[in-house]
Specification:
4-stranded antiparallel sheet, elongated, mainly alpha, two-stranded antiparallel sheet, 72% helix
């Protein structure tokens, strides 16, 4: 009762606070309206006495409906009275009335006449409006020179709209010769007044200029290296020592085995790239320091985050380049992650510049792209001579640091494109006013489209390379094969999720690994390709074109590019790995490559004739040596158990099952209920341990299995047989066998039928006396 009284008191207090808030809001509104009405009355009295300023203010009140009922006709009358007295603000307002047709028929010629009257008096707003009419040719013949003249007059008086526009026309060369210095001059004047558009334009210009400076300085450094190498070659030739030495070196390289030449080439490439990273770090830090000083002395009224964009980004780039150089120089185990990060910068910087300015990559950025690709190749290779003494090494290709920040990183990668798109739409005045629910639904549709195209990239590539589809998921929609039949499932809980998955499996155990790599890489590639195409269309076609899809095409393009880049980063989230991590794992040719090989063959047995006896047991055992804890370790032992059982190697199957039981107890007890059937059947059929089989059955039933399939009834049959209940054992076997016969002809289901047959043999050979004579053993 006491808790109910406390809740009632809290609700009563909340109700009182809400009522007081509503009352105060209504009261404030009434007071404001009363004051406006009083002001309108006083203004009317002055206006009726012929005060031009009061007449203008009263007209504005009628136009906005402040203190009086909104009436555009009444506003026109008062504007005209003030304008007839040569009041510039009223003349400009009267021109806007005729321009928009509010209170009078739309008439551009009349609008120009009143704009000119106000502009001739030096009124800055009217000068801008008149320039706008000349610029578009409304009410007057189109005249860019006359428009620029009036824009300049207005801008010189501090009109921020005119200053913005002059910055734009000088940057684009519209109506005037292109002049970057004048564009920066006018943008800076507007930015000092706190104009966000001008601040954004200056920041983007600084970013593009800084990227160009970085590129040019780095190219100069590469040129110096090339010239130095050329002079070194000339010096060797002049001394007469190079010809024979070069021939011997070439012969040695040609005669060296691939295993020797490839690591040596990769180490040489890493050394060269680390030198480039060192210079890149110095360049980026110099740009960051220079722009930090410029931002500190900038006279903006409000310090915007855009003023710090260039220093922040180039500081981060400088740190990454520096870390890549340092770790490569000191041969640390983390050099791989930092080298890949630095290479991605060299790869993405020219792509971003090209997307923004739409300059073909091959004109200026091809060298940075080559450096980026070379870095990804060199640092994706794992140098076995580099170790981290005293610290465990991660073999899955991920970084602990990236894993920790992956959640924050994906929040940024999701929000950044959205905010860019929102600002882009506002800058183009194409932002449509939609309901929040409708807007949210459209954004979800864009996200689902991106995910679907990404997964279709995996699927189409896999099918083209000779693989077979067994599952496909995008958002809440899932299609999968179960017991040989396609099933569809709609998961409402995943409506707000943009996740997806594709299950394509090879048709043979010796399927080329290069094709698997192409299938994994196809998803991010499709996202990058569709994103760039969508952005190109959105930035080139007209704003009102149907191809814009109401602005959603630009959002799709930016979002797709951001998510593709994020998905290429090697990280893990729980049990799932990004495409970048999976690419590394397959390239590494280590335990993870063996694990993926084992998984693909196991999954392919669901839709192909491959049976457990066809598993690559060597790859499974190699992977099992590394995976000693967790679900993956348990699955590898169960794969080995199925393989040995299918091959008739019962002692080996029992040993694999024993290892799986140990891992279950230590770190994998949360497996699905259906997997427990393997432990029940194995303990009953292989080890003849009724007590252990019953314990596993009890564990399974505690998890409430929902799918009583072939495995379930076969396990129950083996359990009851060992416990001496032959009637129930035979009935359960009949159910299991009937279900097994209905399954399609695939390797996994042939193994199910095989298990039913060997259990049938055991049931036929057994007798009640034999079962009772069995002593339970652990």
């Amino acid at each position: 009762m006491k808790s109910w009284r406390q809740i009632a008191a809290a609700v009563a207090c909340l109700a009182v606070v809400c009522a007081a808030t509503v009352f105060w809001s209504v009261h404030k509104k009434e007071v404001a309206e009363r004051k406006l009405a009083e002001a309108a009355g006083l203004c009317r009295a002055r206006a009726e006495r012929g005060d031009a300023q009061a007449q203008f203010e009263l007209g504005t009140m009628y136009r906005k409906g402040e203190g009086v009922r909104r009436d555009h006709t009444e506003a026109l009358g008062w504007y005209r009275k003030a304008a007839d007295q040569n009041y510039a603000k009223a003349q400009d307002a009267l021109g806007s009335v005729y321009y928009y047709g509010h209170g009078a028929p739309q008439n551009y010629e009349e609008a120009v006449r009143w704009y000119r009257k106000a502009a001739d008096q030096g009124y800055a707003s009217a000068e801008y409006d008149l320039a706008y009419m000349y610029d578009l040719g409304k009410g007057v013949p189109q005249d860019s020179a006359e428009a620029i003249r009036w824009y300049r007059k207005s801008a010189e008086q501090g009109n921020v709209r005119a200053q913005d526009w002059l910055g734009y026309v000088y940057s684009q060369g519209k109506g005037v010769p292109q002049d970057s210095a004048m564009a920066v001059f006018w943008y800076s004047k507007a930015a000092k007044q706190g104009d966000e558009y001008a601040q954004r334009a200056l920041s983007l210009r600084e970013m593009r200029g800084s990227a160009g400076r970085f590129r040019r300085t780095l190219y100069l450094f590469l040129l110096i290296i090339s010239v130095g190498g050329l002079w070194l070659s000339i010096d060797l030739l002049v001394r007469g020592r190079s010809a024979r030495g070069l021939r011997q070196r070439a012969a040695g390289l040609l005669g060296a085995s691939y295993a020797e030449s490839w690591p040596r080439s990769m180490r040489s490439l890493r050394s060269f790239l680390s030198l480039i990273f060192a210079i890149s770090s110095l360049i980026c830090l110099e740009i960051a320091v220079r722009h930090s000083g410029a931002a500190a002395h900038r006279q903006y009224s409000v310090l915007s985050w855009r003023t710090l964009l260039v220093p922040a980004l180039f500081s981060i780039m400088g740190v990454i380049f520096g870390a890549a150089w340092f770790t490569a120089w000191r041969r640390k185990s983390s050099t791989q992650g930092w080298g890949i990060a630095a290479s991605l910068i060299n790869l993405l910087l020219p792509l971003a510049t090209s997307v923004y300015s739409w300059v073909p990559l091959w004109r200026h950025e091809i060298i940075l792209l080559v450096i980026g690709v070379a870095g990804l190749v060199a640092f994706s290779w794992r140098d076995s001579t580099i170790t981290a003494p005293g610290a465990p090494t991660r073999v899955d290709g991920t970084s602990g640091l990236i894993d920790k920040v992956s959640g924050l990183l994906f929040i940024v990668l999701n929000l950044a494109p959205f905010f860019w798109w929102y600002g882009w739409m506002r800058a183009r005045n194409t932002l449509e006013h939609r309901s929040d629910l409708y807007e949210f639904a459209l954004i979800l549709l864009v996200a689902l489209t991106i995910t679907t195209l990404h997964e279709l990239g995996h699927t189409a590539t896999g099918l083209a390379l000779g693989m077979k589809l067994r599952a496909f998921a995008a958002g809440p929609f899932e299609w999968f094969i179960r017991e040989g039949k396609w099933n569809f499932q709609f998961r409402p809980s995943a409506i707000l999720s943009a996740g997806g998955a594709t299950g394509v499996v090879p048709l043979s155990p010796d399927f080329p690994r290069s094709r698997e790599l192409l299938m994994v890489a196809a998803g991010p590639f499709v996202s990058l390709l569709t994103g760039m195409i969508a952005l190109w269309i959105a930035l080139t076609v007209k704003d009102n074109s149907p191809a814009q899809l109401g602005g959603l095409l630009a959002l799709f393009g930016a979002w797709s590019l951001a998510l593709a880049v994020g998905n290429l980063l090697p990280f893990t989230s729980g049990e799932n790995y990004s495409d970048g991590a999976q690419i590394y794992q397959r390239l590494s040719n280590g335990p993870w490559a063996d694990y993926h090989r084992a998984m693909t063959v196991v999954l392919s047995s669901l839709v192909t004739p491959l049976r457990p006896k066809d598993y690559d047991i060597k790859a499974i055992l190699r992977a099992a040596d590394t995976f000693t804890q967790g679900k993956r370790a348990l699955l590898l032992r169960l794969f080995a158990y199925s393989h040995f059982l299918d091959c008739g190697k019962l002692p080996e199957a029992a040993e694999a099952l024993k290892e799986a039981e140990s891992i279950y107890r230590q770190s994998a007890s949360d497996i699905p209920a259906e997997l427990h059937t393997a432990f029940v059947f194995g303990n009953a059929y292989l080890r003849r341990d009724a007590v252990a089989a019953r314990e596993w059955w009890t564990r399974m039933e505690a998890k409430k299995p929902t799918h009583r399939n072939v495995d379930y009834w076969r396990a129950y049959s083996a359990l009851r047989w060992l416990e001496g209940d032959m009637k129930e054992a035979n009935e359960a076997w009949e159910r299991s066998n009937a279900l097994a016969q209905q399954l399609p002809k695939a390797g996994t289901y042939e193994f199910d039928r095989y298990c039913c047959s060997i259990l049938r043999t055991a049931l036929d050979d057994a007798s009640v006396r034999d079962v009772q004579s069995l002593s339970p053993q652990r």
